[in-house]
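A favour, since you know our structure tokens better than I do. What I am after is a single protein written out in full by you. Could you add the entry underneath, on a fresh line?


***
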Amino acid sequence: MPSSRSRRAELERLGAVPFAHRGLHGGGRVENSGGAIAAAAAQGFGVELDVRLSSDGEAMVFHDSDLDRLTIEQGPVSARTAAQLQSIRLHVGDEAMPRLAEALAMIAGRVPLLIEVKAPGRRVASLCRAVAGALERYEGPVGVMSFNPQVGGWFARHSPAVLRGLVVTEHGRRGLRGRIERPLALWRSRADFLAYDIRDLPSRFAAAARSSGMPVYTWTVRSEADRERAAANADQIIFEAPPE
């Protein structure tokens, strides 16, 4: 088990530079593609990417639950094997979705990495296991995060050395229910950091986390106004367009 001092040092390494949201995409590069990941790392930005589970238990780098928006095929990602998914071309260029292991090899610890685990509901173990397995020999600053607090809880129990984050939006949850759910989700996730919706900052919940020493990252920063808000209320940004 890492000491609190070494965990703090790893958190400082993780938040050292801004993160490119789903890699540096646009201009011929599809989000979460190998090209977008490589472009972000080449420019010294951290990489934020999403993972989903294939039908045969591999962690695939892809945001949506369905193939429709980003590929030439349709249907759920979870219905295809990793090999089948990698035979499908993305809409732009001649790329397919990477396996997480391929993305890790591409980044190779050169820049910080945030992995958002897309595992809704209670059945998180299969995807968490796949991510933890891919990270076993990875060297470099990395954190896993999810909207689902059970993901952080799984890593706390089964792979405690990995930094854990809770992704938070207050959209639609600003009343009493949200004020109850957010602290409960934080407790269940055993989070080391928060990834907070920029639209909700400033936030009393995020401010309390920061005051306790917990880093707060914020997504998705798209404008100068967003950058100013992030500078006042967060420790690092996850951006859609790089700073000029």
Q: What stands out?
A: Residues 115 and 144 are 5 Å apart (CA to CA). Residues 176-189 form the longest helix (14 residues). The mean pLDDT is 95. The two ends are 40 Å apart (CA to CA).
